[in-house]
Amino acid sequence: MTRLRSFVGITLIMTLSVVSLAAAGRAASDRPAAGSLRVYAVITQDDAELLTDMFREETGVNVSFIRATTGELVNRVIAEQDAPQADILLGGASLLHTSIAQAGALESYRSPNADGLPAYGVDPDGYWTGFYVTSLGIGVNEDRFRRLFGDTPVPETWDDLLDERFAGEIVMTDPLASSTAYLFLQTQLQRLGWDAGWEYLETLAPLVGQFPTSGGAPPQLIGSGEYSIGVAFVHALSRYRRQGFPLSVHTPAQTGGEVGAVSIIRGGPNTENARRFVDFVLSVEAQQAFVDQSLVTPLSDRVVLPEEAVGIQEIDLIDYDSELAGRQRSETLEQWQQIVD
Amino acid sequence: MAADRRLTHSQILKEPGVAIFYAVLSVFLLVFIVGPLVVVFLEPSAADWARVWTTPRWRTAIGNTLAMAFRSTATALLVGLVYAIAIERGNFPGKRIFELIPLLLLVSPPFVGGLAFIFLLGRSGLITSNWLGLEVSLYGRTGLWIAQTLSFFPVAFMILRSSLQSIGGTLDNAARGLGASRTRVLFSVTVPLLVPGMLAAALFIGIIVLADFANPLLIGGRYRVLATEVFSQLTGWADAGMSAALGIVLLMPAAVFFALQQFLSRRSHGRYVTVGGRSSQLPQVGLPAPLRVLLFLFCLTVAAYTLLTFFVIFAAAVVQLWGIDYTITADHVRRSLRHWPELRNSLVFALSAAALCTLVSSVSAYLVHRCRVPFRTGLDLATLLPAGIPGTLYGVALVTSFARWYPRLNGTALLIILAMAASYIPVGYRISSAALQQMQPSLDDGARNLGAHRMQVFRDITVPLTANALFATFAYAFIRSIGTVSAVVFLVSFETMVSSVIILNLAEQSSWGRAAALASMLVLITFVGLALVRLISGTRWNRMFTR
Q1: Which one of B107, B140, B416, B507 is most buried, by most CB atoms within 10 A?
Q2: Is the dihedral of CA B432, B38, B229, A42 positive or negative?
Q3: CA distance B461 to chain A (A)
């Protein structure tokens, strides 16, 4: 009996090893099938599912996606230049798309559906096309805030955040891992000027209780009452408010925002489908569905603004110099690492 | 008459089976383990090294990593020790259930503990907020400490339990006969005899804590440790040099622990045979009643928390949002079903990795311990090498070597299976070596004298007699592989995405419900897989990992 068992077991192990190595070897020589589409998605898992499901239904193209942080996907696109794995980079600040384009990893494409978009929403060289705008805001969990701070007025401006009593109660994303948080750093530096900006950040940093790596985390962390104050994108905060969490959302004056873009990866396995996907994302139906679910600020004026979303006219954006932000990236993050341990 | 087991260069040619295995194994180890590590060592520039020591963020991370390794190891050891004494000497009802509790933790995917921690002890956790009404934040040092203690005490328990079993009752009874009290027997006979086991367990846990990735990522808060910094340097900043430098820094203490471990196991080799064994028929001396009650309560607490761990993971999967909205919903489960391809990948890759790991580790153990092939020490070291290497560093090593030189391997199952298998080869190797050393070499010699080739000996004698070791290796590699995130997170791609990475993604976005639903499915798959291994091998649960 024991002998039989060990015989069966050993045979299984040997077979599995051989099969797995064979399968792995075969996979190594596989190219993705034509008629499919592969997307690197920076937008949330939910939103990526919405858009890819709609596209699959409309075109019958077999589309799959990987969601990860902006930084990781940007790295992947640049690292894979010689043998691109994906066709589309969906979402993320236009600035990052520009930097990938400069590395030579993007394909230029001007979609007919991009007509009528404002000039700042389209790359003059056609490497990326904007499909939404996001801006930074402050979210407050009213229940937790009242319990901890009584009648203290809730923070509504950037300077309101610097109250020492808020120590440990603020949550914002880690600038090293998340472009959202880098936008926040640059917003302060550009709003106040370099030196005063760093003074602001040095005062704020010790008050922050946690720096999660994903831009999507702070809204949920304040929504579920783990922290009372969060810095995040306005639309992400509004989403939790819509779900019934006791959140108030504030759009501070002099805030930072960015255009979220879609671009085509040069030499991807299915460039033709990639063009169709860009057309699709910019179509009114896709835009409407995407804005309705994500509550981002639409770029196209053909979209009906949902009640909970914020229109572009309602945001007081600073004159954000994204080129300067790109140039100062290393320096800024380096200095940030010096003040936050 | 014992045949000469040394195999000279000329003899190896007469044994084509051995020669082929030897060649294949050597190439495998050189190409997939030694090679990538050499490459990753060359990755950081001098400037990167300078930045490691001058940036406050990393100096803090280094300090934190070391402090946490010592802290968590100490407490995990203590909890494991008390639990082992309770099970072996407590003599209270329910022992059969209590002894399965640490095993349950040992075989669950690494992020299960972290997720459950958030649900139970988080800022709006079930225990902290709902039951105790506390307004505390355990995220950071304290939380990480608690979570790692709970995650890794089972390792100490398994090791110390088998030490306790081998001590036997002779010495206890002698001490009692000389007039020592029951308590005194425990503290001046039993515990001192456990010291070698404790040392071994401490080193083993120390290495695991250093490399632990899931807990710091989920509940580390602002408390940064190197294992996660290695990750964020590569994902956030595309800085492979810095990432590698931090990984190598992390490797240093792990290497020291590893060297100590080797030293101790070599030195104590052979002693276990003479001390104790199960030969002693004398019953062990029991513990005084009050102490037994305390131990029982201790076990009850640990068991309750463990069962709650699994309960909340399953429960969080079927309510809207744990801690806030307890409306029952099938939404998370339904949406997790679309991750079936990733679950299937996890299962297939983990099975393949386990098979590969079992094959490599057992062949290597046989060649080193039974065949006296040339360069045995090198082979021995190369096989054991991954033990000290944190999963994230090995991931970085594969990305900077293979993925860069041969981009078509990017995102293939091959690299992922390799990354999974390589990490657990040393454990398998140790299991197989121990089994081989327990086997009389005269069996081999007898068969050889009767004219069997070495490969026939391996097939007909060694493999059947060490079958349990092979199953243990397979089971261990399978459960570790299916849950691993750190080693594979850089390697996955479209067709090769695995569910543990998706869970990490969902948890990072704080989509707790979906993360819990997917984690539950992975836990179930792991348990079913283990049950199958158990069925085939016929090993008892609590025996599966005690070797």
Answers
A1: B416
A2: negative
A3: 11
Contact list, B222 vs chain A (CB under 8 Å): 208-211
Please judge whether A38 and B139 are an interchain contact, meaning their C-beta atoms are less than 8 angstroms apart: no
Say what the pLDDT of residue B271 is. 44
What is the CA A165 to chain-centroid distance, rounded? 31
Task: Indicate the residue of B352, B407, B510 with minimum beta-carbon distance to A220.
Answer: B510
Q: Is the pLDDT of residue A2 over 70?
A: no
Phi first, then psi: give them for residue A25, nearest 5 degrees: -65, -40
Numbered ranges of CATH 1.10.3720.10 in chain B: 1-42+330-547, 62-316
CATH of A36-133+258-310, one of 3.90.1010.10, 3.40.50.300, 2.40.50.140, 3.40.190.10: 3.40.190.10
Which of B60, B413, B464 lies nearest to residue A24, judging by beta carbons? B413
| ipTM reported for the complex, 2 dp | 0.78
Phi, psi of A232, rounded to the nearest 5 degrees: -160, 180
Report the C-alpha gap between B486 and B110 in whole angstroms: 10
Interface of B with A in 501-520 (CB under 8 A): 505-506, 508-512, 514
Architecture (CATH level 2) of domain A134-256+325-339: 3-Layer(aba) Sandwich (3.40)
Model's pTM, two decimal places? Answer: 0.83
Which residues in chain B are closer than 8 Å to A5, comparing Cβ atoms?
467, 536-538
CA distance B468 to A15: 18
Contact map slice: B 193-232 vs A, CB within 8 A: 217, 221-222, 224, 232
Say yes or no for a CB contact (<8 Å) between B238 and A78. yes
User: Which chain A residue has its CA at the smallest distance from B515's CA?
Assistant: A45
Tokens of A11: 């045979």
Q: In the predicted model, what is the mean pLDDT of residues B466-495? A: 85
Fold type of domain B62-316: MetI-like fold (1.10.3720)
pLDDT at residue B230 above 90? no
Contacts of A78 in chain B (CB under 8 A): 238
Q: Counting beta carbons within 10 angstroms of the beta carbon of residue B326, is it exposed (0 to 12), middle (13 to 18) or buried (19 or more)?
A: middle
For domain B1-42+330-547, the question of CATH label 3.90.1480.10 is answered with: no
Q: Indicate yes or no: CB of B463 within 8 angstroms of CB of A223.
A: no
Nearest chain B CA: its distance from A58 CA (Å): 19
**pLDDT tens digits, one per residue of B397-443:** 887 787 677 767 777 888 899 888 988 898 888 888 888 877 777 77
Task: Give me the residue spans of the domains in chain A.
Answer: 36-133+258-310, 134-256+325-339
